[in-house]
Every structure is written in structure tokens, then in C-alpha cells.
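Worked problem 6 (solution included).
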Amino acid sequence: MRNYFILFLCLFQGVLFGQWQDVGGGTNNSSHGMCVWNGQLVNVGSFNNPCGKVATWDESAWSCLGGGVGLVGRAAIEWNGNLVVVGDFWNNFQPCTGCNGIGVWDGSTWTPLGTGFNNDVLCLAIWNGDLVAGGDFTEADGQPCSRVARWDGTTWQPIGSPADFDNDIRCMIEFEGEFWVGGDFNNAGGCSACDGLVKWNGTNWVGGDSGVDIQGGVDSTVRGTFC
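Solution. The predicted structure is:
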């Protein structure tokens, strides 16, 4: 009787709450980021099957975007109607010539955005209509830039001082008109209490006891998807 009762509970749960479903056979390695672009789900990660690190799902099948991107796709976002993908492809396996850590897919080809970055790009956000990239880089368009940069329509520009962050930025979002970032850093712009989570006030990065209502910051890495 007990076994029948357990079976009934499992079936009831499946009917009431639904079940996880296979999505085209899935991928053969990790997924690191998703977004919606052109009415399709975009998945980026470390996989090489069904596609090379980036694939779109149209509710029936996966599709590849050219030859895909580099070693790892870390994040994707829709921007000005195009798809922007970033990741670990600043030194090899670039989707296009000059796509150093970032590539723009227009529906048929990959193109660079500036000359890109000198190390991994880990996250993307839209702030005041501008595209912002964050990660482990210390140069953008060949100029000093500590881990976060804004595309001004022509070149990548640092937000704040080019040496503000002492470690990776892993997630970013605009919230109530302000720009927030999280990551592995223990210091931002000389703010020793700015551990892992800060916001830009237009002049400085503020955090810890002075702006984000988290005394002393947070005690470990902030990483994930802000939404």
C-alpha cells in the first residue's frame, strides 16, 4: 500500500506542478547564459553539440549561428536588434577577425565591436541604452580599463577609473536608473568596504556601508543572472 501511495503522490505532483521537459536533446556540456533574441531562446556555454558554444531554440529545434564562438560563451544579450555574445575567445577561436571576447551576430555573420578586450568577458548589460561589458579584462580597445566598459557608439570607455576593480565582475544590471555590478572584487575605486556588490552613483562606485545597505559588503563572490 505504501508503494502505491508514493506512486500516486509522484503522479499527482507531475499533474499539478508540471514536469521538466527535454529541449531538443539538450547540449553536451555546461550552459552559462541565456537571453531572448528575435523571438528565439539563445543559449551560450561550453558545449560543442549541437553547436559551437551558442545555439538558438525556436520551440522545435536548435539552430547554429555560423561556426559559433571561441572556447566558452559566457553571456548573450539583444542590443539594437542584434545578438551580442561574449566569452573566452579573446586569444583564439574567435567567431570573426578582431572579435576579441565579444561578437555581434546580425542574423547572418559575426562582426567585431571595436577591437575588443585582452581577457575573458563574463557578462553584459544595457544601461541608459548603452551596451556594457564586464569581466576579467584590463584593456578595452587597447586602452587601460579595469573589468567594466561601456560602448559609446565608437569605442569602449571605462566606467570610473581604468583601475577601479581588483578582481572579476560577473554580473550587472540597471535598477531604478542606477548601474549595479557584482563579482569577485574586494575593492572598487578605493572603497575597501565595497566587497562583491557596488553601484555607480555617476561619479564613484559606492557599496558596503555607504550606499547599498549591506554593511561591509558581502562575504563571497556575487555571480549569477540579475533579472
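Discussion: Residues 25-174 form a domain with the Neuraminidase fold (CATH 2.120.10.80).
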